[in-house]
Design a protein that fits this description.
By secondary structure, the chain is α+β, with helices and mostly antiparallel strands. The protein contains 13 helices and 52 strands. Among the domains are: about 130 residues, Zincin-like (2-Layer Sandwich); about 100 residues, no CATH class; about 325 residues, TolB, C-terminal domain (Neuraminidase, 6 Propeller). Helix content is about 15%, strand content about 45%. The protein has an 18-stranded antiparallel β-sheet that branches. Helix 3 packs across helix 5, helix 6 crosses helix 8 and helix 7 packs across helix 11. The longest helix has 28 residues. It is globular, with a radius of gyration of 31 Å.
C-alpha cells in the first residue's frame, strides 16, 4: 500500500497541535494538505488578536507505548524495531534480504541506497506510528511512504503473512525506483505512476500467488457479473477488490503472453500518458480485445464450477444481511425458550456486537438490538471486525474483543442479564483474537505478545490465572477444547517438509505440552470446532453441560457417553475455504475430511454448528452476510485425505545470516528534509501572503522541525525589513505531545474591530503547547505564548506597544462519524478558557471563554439531524472581536461581515443524500464523482460588544458536493430573518463557498 493512497476518510480526524489561532480545518485530508495547514498554524501562532477565534476538534493518535528502538544494519536495509521483538526482526531481516535479491532479478533493477524498514510487533503498535500523521485503519497491513522511502510493516501473527507483506511493500520500493530511473532517462520533470490498480496488482503479483481470498473475490465477480475488465476498473478504485482485480489481470498476462510482459508494461510507461494505450502497445492488441481475452480466461476457470458447486440461493438460507456481518453464534435461552443469533457487524459505520431474536429454526429475524457499540468511547476504541472476536457460551455469556487503549481487552458480557461483568486485559499480550469457551467456563484464545510471538493461551476464570500453552514463532490460532478438558485443538503452520507453510490441525495436552498433528495435507485447514451429534451437536461448553445432565439420570460420565463426535474444519483445497467434517472414533481422528459446504465463494471467518445446521459468513455480490446451511446435504467436492506417514520436523524460519548482518545499534535521531516548497496562504486577518516552508524530521516521524520564511513588503524599499520567520518544533514521541517555537513577524494587519482600519505590526516572541490525550476521543490541551508587539496605527502617527502573555486550556471530545460532506453521527465538544495580558504596558487585558457543543443524530444510513449550540465570550480591556457570517455559521450574511466581543449561535440542519455516485462518460474520458448531498438549515445567533442589539437568523436549503474526498463545495439558497426575528428578507440570498459541514 502506498501511503499517499491511504484511506482519506480515516485521516480526517487526526489532530495536529493546538495553538492560539488554529483554523477550523481538521476535516481536511492531513496527508494531502498538511503543508497548507502548517502555514496557517504558523501565521496564527503569534497573533493573540485572533487566539480565541480559530480552533478545531478532531480525534487523537495516542502514543501508548514507550518504544525502545534498535537499528539492525544489513547489506541493503536499515531495520528499525522495538527491542522486545528482536527474534522476529531477525526473521524479517532475512525475508527482506531474500526479497531484495529476488526482486532485483524479477524487475531487472537494483537500488543503491539503503532502504529504511520499520517493524512493529502488532497492529496496535503499528497504529501508533508517526511515519504518517494520519490514522492507520484496521485493514492496513503495511505501507510504503515514498517521500523518504520508508517501509512500515506490522507483524500480524503469521510469518507467512509477514513474508507476503514485506515482498509486497518492497515491490513498491523497486517499482518507484525503477520508474524514477525511467523518468530520468526520458528527461521527464516528474515521475509518472501507473494507475493504482496496476501498482497494487503488481505488488500482489510479485509477492504472492492467488490465495483463497483472491480466488473468492474473482469467483464472486465473474459468477455474479460485476467483473469490470480494464475499461471500467475505476468502478472499484481504492477498494480491496481493486487489488485482486489487478493481480488477476497480471496473472492472465503471465498465462496468455508470458511473465516477461508484466515487466514490459511497466517499462513501456513512457509510450503514452494514457495507461490503457501502454497496455495496448505492449500486448499488441486493443483494450477491447484484451478485455475480451481476460474475461474469457476468467470464465474458463470459474464457469465450470456451476456443475460442481452451489450458489448461495440454492444451498443456503440468508439469515442476516445489510452491512458487514461476522461471527454468528446461535443461542437458546433455556429459561424463556427464545432463540437468538449473536454476531458482530458494521451496519452503520460502527463495528458492534448485536443480538437478534429469531424463530425456533434460527431462520427468521424477529428483532435486533445492539449490545456493545464500538468506536464511540475509550472502552471500545476499535473492533477487529475481520478477525474472529466473539465467543458465546450456552448460558448466555459472551466474550467480545475490542481494542481499549494500549492493548486488546476481552469483555465478558451477560447477554441475558444485559450487563458487562468483567474486562480482561493481560499485561504481556497485546493482540487477542479467536476466543472460545471451554466446558468448565475457562477461556481459550490466540494472542500476540510483545516479542511478536503468536501463541495459544487459556485463562482460568475461577483462579483469575493466565497460562500460555505454546511458545514459538509458529502461527497458532483458533483454539477449541478437544476430546477431554486436558486437550486443546488448534490450527498452526508448524509442519515441515512438503507441508511447510501450510496450516494443519493439531492437539496439545495442557498438562504436558505435548503437541500431535491431527491432519497433514498440502491444503490449509483452519478454525476447528468439535461437536457431538448424538447429544444435539452442541459445541464446547454446551456439550459438557449435556453430558453432565445425563449423569443425573444415572449414566456413567465417560467420554464414550457423547458418541459420534465430529471435528468441523475449514479447508481451501477447492481454492476457497469451505466446511469439512472429520469423524472421531474414541480418541482417534479420521484421516478423511468430508465436504459439507460447496459454495462458490466459500466460508469466511468463524462459524458455528448445531445438530443440523452450520451458521457462517459468506460473500455474495460483494456483501458479507450470515447464512444457514444444512450439514447433512450431499456435495460433489472430493474429500481431503491426510497422510501423517510423511511428516517431517519443521525447519526454523530463515533468519539473517551472520555475514549479511553488519551491526545492531540503539536508535538515534537523524533529521532529514521532509519537504521544502513555496506556499501561499490567505486569511481574514493577514490577507494573502507567500513564502517558503521547510520541514525536517527524524526517520520515525516522532520529532519534527518547521521553518517558515516569508516577506510582507509592499514596496521595494521595505523588502529587507519585512522578512518574517518562524522556527518551531513538535514532538509526538510519547503520549504527552509538546511543541515550542520562536517567531519574528512584521507587516500590515487589518483590525477586527473596525471594517477598514489597518496598522503596521512588528512582533516577536515564543510559544509553547502541550497535549495529553485520555483516549482516541478526548484530550486536554494547553498553550502559552509571549509576544512583544508594536502596532503603528496608519494615518495617526502613534504606536501601541504591548508585551502580551496569552495562555489557554481546553478540553476536547470528538467521536463523530463522518459521511462524504461532514459528520453524520456522534458528538463534538470543546470547552476552552484563555487569558491575554499585557504584562508591561497594560494596553490589552482580557479573558476568553468558548463552549461549543455539536450533536449529530443519524436517522437513516446517510441521513442525519445536526445540532450546534455555541457561545464565545471575550471580556476585558481592548478584548478582541469574533467574526461571523458566511457558509459556516450565520448563513446569508456577508462572510466575516459580523463582528462582536460576544457571540452565540445555534444551528439545526437536516442532511440528506441526493446522489451517491455521478458518472460522466465523455468521448475521450470517463469521470465519476461521489457524495452529492442536500441540506435544510436554520441558523440563529448574535454578536455584540457591550450591549445586546438584535437576534439574527436565516433559513434555507443547500447542496454539498465532495470532490475527490479533498474538498467540499457548498451552495446555499435561503432567506435571512431580519429586524430581531420579526420578518424575512425580501428576495433570496445565494451563497457559494467551500468547506465541510459543521
Amino acid at each position: 500500500m502506498l501511503i499517499d493512497q491511504a484511506c482519506v476518510v480515516k485521516t480526517k480526524h487526526h489532530f495536529l497541535p493546538v495553538v492560539p489561532g488554529n483554523m477550523l480545518i481538521d476535516q481536511a485530508c492531513v496527508v494531502k494538505t498538511k503543508h497548507h495547514f502548517l502555514l496557517f498554524l504558523i501565521f496564527l501562532i503569534a497573533a493573540p488578536t485572533v487566539c480565541a477565534q480559530y480552533y478545531y476538534f478532531g480525534r487523537n493518535k495516542v502514543q501508548y507505548e514507550d518504544f525502545d528502538w534498535r537499528v539492525m544494519q544489513t547489506e541493503h536495509f536499515d531495520i528499525y524495531y522495538n527491542a522486545d521483538m528482536a527474534p522476529m526482526a531477525e526473521i524479517g531481516a532475512g525475508i527482506a534480504e531474500e526479497a531484495f535479491a529476488k526482486l532485483k532479478e524479477e524487475l531487472q533493477h537494483t537500488i543503491t541506497y539503503r532502504i529504511p524498514l520499520i517493524f512493529y510487533n502488532t497492529h496496535i503498535h503499528f497504529q501508533q506510528t508517526n511515519v504518517t500523521p494520519g490514522f492507520v485503519p484496521e485493514g492496513v497491513g503495511g505501507f510504503f511512504e515514498f517521500m523518504k522511502g520508508r517501509v512500515v510493516i506490522p507483524f500480524l501473527g503469521s510469518v507467512n503473512q509477514f513474508n507476503h507483506v514485506i515482498y509486497h511493500e518492497l515491490t513498491h520500493v523497486f517499482m518507484t525506483s525503477k520508474l524514477a530511473r525511467i523518468s530520468k532517462d526520458r528527461k521527464w520533470t516528474d515521475t509518472y505512476f501507473p494507475p493504482l490498480w496496476f501498482v497494487e496488482g503488481m505488488a500482489e503479483f510479485y509477492s504472492t500467488r492467488p490465495d483463497a481470498q483472491a480466488t473468492m473475490v474473482m469467483r464472486d465477480a465473474v459468477l455474479n457479473n460485476y467483473f469490470t475488465g480494464l475499461k471500467n476498473i475505476d468502478a472499484v478504485y481504492g477498494s480491496f477488490i481493486m487489488y485482486k482485480f489487478g493481480q488477476a489481470f497480471l496473472e492472465f498476462v503471465k498465462a496468455k503472453y508470458g511473465g516477461w510482459f508484466v515487466l514490459k508494461i511497466l517499462e513501456n510507461i513512457s509510450y503514452s500518458s494514457e495507461f490503457e494505450e501502454v497496455i495496448s502497445y505492449t500486448l499488441g492488441k486493443s483494450i477491447e480485445e484484451i478485455d475480451a481475452e481476460w474475461f474469457a480466461f476468467e470464465r474458463s476457470k470459474y464457469y465450470p464450477l456451476v456443475t460442481t458447486h452451489s450458489s448461495h440461493a440454492l444451498a443456503t438460507k440468508k439469515i442476516i444481511g445489510g452491512g458487514y456481518n461476522f461471527d454468528p453464534k446461535p443461542l437458546t435461552d433455556k429459561a424463556t425458550g427464545k432463540h437468538y443469533i449473536v454476531y458482530t457487524a458494521n451496519k452503520d459505520g460502527y463495528s458492534s456486537l448485536y443480538l437478534s431474536e429469531t424463530d425456533s429454526t434460527f431462520t427468521n429475524i424477529l428483532s435486533t438490538k445492539r449490545i456493545i457499540t464500538g468506536e464511540r468511547g475509550k472502552d471500545h476504541e476499535a473492533v477487529h471486525l475481520f478477525e474472529a472476536s466473539l465467543a458465546v457460551s450456552s448460558d448466555g455469556v459472551a466474550a467480545f474483543i475490542t481494542r481499549s487503549g494500549q492493548s486488546d481487552v476481552v469483555h465478558i458480557y451477560d447477554l441475558f442479564g444485559g450487563k458487562e461483568t468483567e474486562a480482561l486485559r493481560f499485561e504481556n499480550v497485546l493482540s487477542i483474537s479467536e476466543p472460545a469457551f471451554t466446558s468448565g467456563g475457562d477461556l481459550l484464545f490466540r494472542g500476540i505478545n510483545r516479542a511478536a510471538s503468536t501463541d495459544i493461551y487459556i485463562y482460568y476464570s475461577a483462579e483469575k490465572r493466565l497460562k500460555q500453552l505454546t511458545d514459538d514463532n509458529f502461527d497458532d490460532g483458533a483454539p477449541t477444547e478437544g476430546l477431554t478438558p486436558d486437550d486443546v485443538i488448534f490450527s498452526s503452520d508448524r509442519l515441515g517438509g512438503e507441508y511447510s507453510g501450510v496450516y494443519n490441525i493439531f492437539n496439545i495436552k495442557i498438562s504436558t505440552g505435548e503437541i500431535t498433528p491431527v491432519t497433514a495435507t498440502k491444503s490449509n485447514f483452519g478454525k476447528p470446532v468439535l461437536v457431538a451429534d448424538s447429544k444435539g451437536a452442541v459445541q464446547g461448553r454446551e456439550a459438557e453441560v449435556s453430558e453432565r445432565e445425563s449423569q443425573g439420570s444415572g449414566t456413567t460420565p465417560t467420554t464414550q457417553n457423547v458418541v459420534n463426535k465430529k471435528l468441523i474444519v475449514l479447508n481451501d483445497a477447492d481454492g476457497v475455504n469451505n466446511l469439512y467434517e472429520i469423524e472421531v472414533s474414541g480418541d482417534k481422528f479420521s484421516d478423511t475430511a468430508r465436504n459439507i459446504s460447496d459454495l462458490y465463494t466459500g466460508v469466511q471467518t468463524s462459524y458455528s454448528v448445531d445438530s443440523t445446521f452450520a451458521f457462517f459468513t459468506s460473500v455474495d455480490r460483494m456483501s458479507f452476510d450470515i447464512y444457514k446451511l444444512d450439514r447433512k446435504r450431499v456435495t460433489k467436492l472430493p474429500t481431503v485425505v491426510s497422510d501423517r506417514t510423511r511428516l517431517q520436523p519443521p525447519k526454523p524460519f530463515p533468519q539473517l545470516g551472520g555475514d549479511a548482518k553488519k551491526t545492531i545499534v540503539q536508535y538515534k535521531e537523524d533529521y532529514t528534509l521532509d519537504y521544502a516548497q513555496s506556499q501561499i496562504a490567505t486569511d481574514p486577518v493577514f490577507g494573502t501572503r507567500g513564502g517558503a516552508v521547510l520541514s525536517l524530521s527524524d526517520l520515525l516521524g516522532d520529532d519534527k522541525y518547521f521553518i517558515l520564511l516569508f516577506n510582507t513588503a509592499e514596496t521595494q524599499s521595505d523588502f529587507l525589513e519585512s522578512f518574517n520567520i518562524d522556527i518551531s518544533r513538535l514532538n509526538t514521541k510519547n503520549r504527552t505531545n509538546f511543541g515550542y517555537g520562536v517567531f519574528n513577524y512584521r507587516g500590515r494587519r487589518y483590525d477586527l474591530r473596525e471594517a477598514d482600519e489597518y496598522y503596521f505590526e512588528k512582533s516577536y516572541g515564543t510559544y509553547f503547547l502541550l497535549q495529553y490525550p485520555f483516549s482516541s476521543f478526548d484530550r486536554i490541551e494547553t498553550t502559552i505564548s509571549l509576544a512583544n508587539v508594536n502596532k503603528d496605527i496608519i494615518g495617526f502617527g502613534s504606536d501601541q506597544r504591548s508585551l502580551l502573555v496569552t495562555n489557554s486550556v481546553a478540553y476536547v471530545f470528538d467521536n463523530s462519524l463522518w459521511g462524504p460532506t461532514g459528520p453524520l453521527d456522534g458528538i463534538r465538544l470543546r470547552a476552552q478558557l484563555g487569558m491575554t495580558h499585557d504584562i508591561r504596558y497594560g494596553n490589552e487585558n482580557y479573558y476568553s471563554f468558548i463552549f461549543d457543543y455539536r450533536h449529530y443524530l443519524r436517522l437513516l444510513y446517510t441521513t442525519s439531524l445536526a445540532f450546534r449550540g455555541s457561545i464565545y465570550w471575550n471580556e476585558g480591556t481592548t478584548s478582541r472581536r469574533y467574526i461571523a457570517g458566511g457558509s459556516w455559521d450565520l448563513r446569508g450574511y456577508p462572510r466575516f461581515g459580523l463582528r462582536g466581543q460576544k457571540f452565540w449561535i445555534t444551528s439545526a440542519e437536516l442532511r440528506i443524500p441526493l446522489a451517491d455516485r455521478i458518472a460522466v462518460q465523455l468521448p475521450f474520458l470517463g469521470l465519476s464523482f461521489s457524495g452529492l448531498r442536500g441540506a435544510l438549515f436554520f441558523d440563529a445567533g448574535s454578536l455584540w460588544d457591550k450591549e445586546y442589539k438584535e437576534t439574527l437568523g436565516s433559513v434555507g436549503f443547500g447542496f454539498r458536493f465532495n470532490l475527490f474526498n479533498l474538498i467540499v463545495f457548498r451552495y446555499d439558497i435561503g432567506k435571512k430573518i431580519e429586524q430581531n426575528f420579526t420578518k424575512f428578507q425580501d428576495g433570496w440570498f445565494y451563497q457559494f463557498f467551500f468547506g465541510w459541514d459543521f
